[in-house]
Every structure is written in C-alpha cells, then in structure tokens.
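User: I'm writing a tutorial on reading structure tokens. Could you give me a worked example: one chain, its sequence, then its tokens, then a sentence or two explaining what the tokens reveal?
Assistant: Sure. Here is the example chain.
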Amino acid sequence: MPALSPRPRLLLLLTLLLACALVYSGQALAPAPSALPTVPLPGMPMPLPRDPPIRLQGLPSFRAAYEESFRGKPDARFLRAISELERLLGGSASTSVNARFHEGRWVLQVEGKEVGGLPAFPDFADALSHLEARAHQLGVKRLELKEGPLPPSASPLPMGRETLETLRELDEAWSRGRRSPATLVGAARATVALALQLSDLTETADAVPARALALLALGRATTSAALTEERALLAYVLGYERTARKLASALPSGGAARAFLLQEDDVLEALAERDAGAGVASHLWVRRLARMGRVQRAVRSSRLSAQQLGMGLHVVAPRLLLKGTHPEEQFIGRRRCWPWRGSRTSSRSCPSFSHSRPRPSSAMRMPRPGMPPPSSRASSVRGNTSGPSASCGIGGRRG
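And here are its predicted structure tokens:
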C-alpha cells in the first residue's frame, strides 16, 4: 500500500480531531437526565421527592440527624388550642404558635417568646396541664367573672340541636356581660359535646376540638369543676384512648361515658334504650356499634328499633363510621323502607336497599371452556327435566 503524502495525512488527522470535538461538545451541552422534566405515564404514580441525605460527620451528629428525620411533631390541635387560649385571655385575633425541639423536649413559642414546653411525646394530660398553667400566667382575672353557682356535674351533655342552641345562648350571655363560672363551664361542656358529634373522617376540622380543649382548660383553671367526663370524652375524640380509659375509670358506675370508654356494652345498651335517641347514650351506643364485629353488631343492633335510636343529628353522624351498606340496614338489623319510600315490606319496594347484583340466568351465562352451551346442558340432564335443577344443569350426569 503506497504511503500517504504529508498533506492528505494532515487533513485526515484534522478531520478526526474535528469529529471528536463535535461529539464531546454535544455531550457536554446535553442536559443531565435528572434535569429533564419527568412526566408520569397515565396510570403511573407521581414521583415523590427524596429525603435529604444524611451525611456522616461523626456518630453523634449522625444519630441526631437520624432522630430528627423521624421525630413526630406535637399535635396540631394542641398548638391551635394555645392560640385559642391566647385569643380568649390576651385579646389578639391571631397568634402564631411554634414548637421547637431542644434538649429532649418541645419548646413552645408564642410570637417568638417562650411560654413553656412539652415532653418529647406529649399526651392529652400534658397538653391540658400546659394550657391550665398558661391560663394562670396570662391571668384569669381578665375575664371578669361574676360569682355564681356552677352547673350540676350530673347534668347530661347537650346533644343534637340542643348543642347549637346552648352555645348560641351562652355566646349571647357572654357578649352582654353576663359572665359567670356557670357560663364558662357550660360553654366548655357544650363545645366538648359538639366535638364529640363531629364526624371528621378527613381529619381537617381542627378548630372545634382545639377550642373545646382551650375552653376545658380555662374552665378548670378558673373554677373548681373537675370536668372528668368531659376530659375523658375529649381525649377519646382527639385519639388518646388510653388516657380516656384512665379518666373513665374514675367516673361513677352507671354512666354512659364510663360504659362507652370501658366497653361495658350491657350497661350502655340499657342506657340507650331508656334514652330513646335523645341524649348522649344513643350517640355513644352507635359509636360503640361501629367498633364491634359484624356478627355481634347485628345481634346487638337488632334489639333496637328505628324509633329507639332516633333520627337526630347526633345519632345519624356516627353512622358514617360504620363499614358496609346502608346505615339503616347496618344497625337496625333488617331491611326497612323510609316513610317516604313506601311501606315497610321486603326489599323489592326499596330498590336502594338491594345492594346485591341479580344472578344472571342460565341463558345469560357464558359456557366454560370445553362445556356445551346452556341449552344443550339443560337438555342433557337425565331423569327429571323439570324444576330448578334442570334449568341450570345441576343434579344429573352429562350425556
């Protein structure tokens, strides 16, 4: 092969260098794969951002960063209750409350000023104690309460429409200057009743339980009322069931709250029968039915009629907690028709109560692989060809 002259050799070398330069520049100017916008395909889950990486700078710093990434913050309803208490005693319309973890405890700050703290895992009792101490710090004398008797502790909680009417009357009395310990305690009890009847399935309605917690702490700080039943029910509403059962054990026997929290079903069922859907016993009994098993719930609920359970808001709301079909079918135990749907007969007059699909006939069913069509299967049954066994091909041999 003849050797190339120097000039063509130089041109070939320059061409190769230019091609390598173009390839390298194209790779450098191309965007990184992670920088490109990723659009998920239809039906695929959305991409979630990753947690920041924990850099190992010694074992103590790594442990602190690891615990910080998995540490749960205090209950948001506790912080909102502090803001409500500041509004009631301080007069500010909106108060920012922050929680900062420092040296094994949560430091609470109101408008940047430290006002106390909570343990690393605060309970309902810790939050209530802090609210009562904060009420004493702000000064309960600002409320200018007039002397007067407290409402009787054995009085039942207002339920249903009575809850809203009680709150409206107490609010009008408070705005007109009729401020007494009975008014404050009554407002706390009515707000706890409202929080008890609230069906917050999405866990987004924090205003009512937070205000109930603030009023409960304020009522205990300004009066000598123990409000044990209200504390137990509110602790249950907020999800602190262990604290609720501990408080319920100190209640006198025979009450609806104690029977509900300690699962004394026979006592609560008898109270609901006497209550006739007008008070807290009916509401708590429906809530208790929602926590039972399906068989036990059907047996217990069949003993009560629709008139005994009532149709008040405080009874209808907890029916949303029941899993299954129509609420009337769930804990009345039998299929009924509402008065505006017709007579209380079978489910044929109540099409909305029939949740099972109609079974297709033999002519509508598709034959299995290797099996004759339904018509030939019915004709191939030997012996008696009349009756339901012949229509579906069951009860004989295949010919």
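What the tokens reveal: The first helix runs from residue 6 to 29. Strands lie at 97-102, 105-110, 113-119.
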